[in-house]
Amino acid sequence: MITTLTAPVVVLQSAWHEIRLSWLFISADRWTTVFPATCFVMAAVVHARLSVPEAAVTVVLGALYFWLFVYEHTLANQLVGVEEDRVNKPFRPLVTGRSSMRGARLRLIVVRIVFPLYGYCLGVLEWALMWQILSLLQHEYGWGRHWVGRNLYAGIGVVAQLAAAWQIVTVITPDAWRWIVTLTVTVTFLMSVQDLRDITGDRAVHRSTMPLVFGETRTRVFLCCGFAVGPVAIHYFLMAPAAQHWWIVATDVLLGALSLLLSVRVVLLRGREADQRSYRLVEQWYTLALAASIYTLR
């Protein structure tokens, strides 16, 4: 009798442990994956004019897809980067001992099986497989050790992410593709801002990043120029095609101002903490932009 009563409890405890552990693996990347991609799912829901019950179910299913999406990335990334994380990110589960290497490998195998199967059920198998191929190139075949591969991984990953987000709901429209392409180009060229905070760890493991290849100052000047032209790209490609309501104008101004702030920060504010904050602002810019798509792509 005791065994019968405790079995469900053990199952629930195990499930809760896995959920919490997965959150520890993905929490640092939530603002570039789960949150913004779910916003794009919501934009597609509004565009498709789904009923409230259909919309709620679709958003939950989409959020779960992107949880698995980033979980695969973080497991693979952290398995090959333990020594670097001891320097740059000592809070990660493999460094703190919250997960063993063997446990992480087993979870990665499970996720690599479950994720494409779930993508197939949602009708986005091609984008799930695209993401898995990118992950293999990044973590198993050396893309992650060179700045070109790292930036392409992030940029093409935006396509795999946002195309799936929209297609979970409906057929991808030309306007949705305009957003996807604009954000892909932006992320590809400007994602090296994340490497500014990790210079010490990257040098220790002999990773080739933009700051280490071209020099920290040149990289900062390049990123400064990129963020400086950001407001023009935001306005012309993302906001101007929508009807000019006051809230769209306000979002246009806010996103442009944040881009200009980043342009100044990457040059004037240096050091690990300042660069970490700059990267967090980039993540928040990305999430805010995709939140804006909910009412600009309706």
Written description of the protein model:
With 298 residues, the chain is mainly alpha-helical. The chain has one domain. The protein has 16 helices and no strands. It has helices at 2-26, 34-48, 52-79, 82-88, 93-96, 101-122, 125-139, 147-167, 174-190, 193-196, 199-204, 210-214, 216-228, 230-239, 246-268, 272-296. Helix 8 (147-167) runs antiparallel to helix 9 (174-190), helix 9 (174-190) packs antiparallel against helix 14 (230-239) and helix 15 (246-268) packs antiparallel against helix 16 (272-296). The longest helix is centred in the N-terminal third of the chain and has 28 residues, at 52-79. The chain is globular and about 60 Å long.
Cα radius of gyration in angstroms: 20 Å
What's the helix count? 16
State the separation between the terminal residues, measured CA to CA.
56 Å
Percentage beta strand: under 5%
Q: In a few lines, what is going on in this structure?
A:
The chain is mainly α and 298 residues long.
Task: Itemize the secondary structure elements and their pairings.
Layout lengths: L1 H25 L7 H15 L3 H28 L2 H7 L4 H4 L4 H22 L2 H15 L7 H21 L6 H17 L2 H4 L2 H6 L5 H5 L1 H13 L1 H10 L6 H23 L3 H25 L2
What distinguishing features does this structure have?
single chain; about 300 residues; mainly alpha; globular
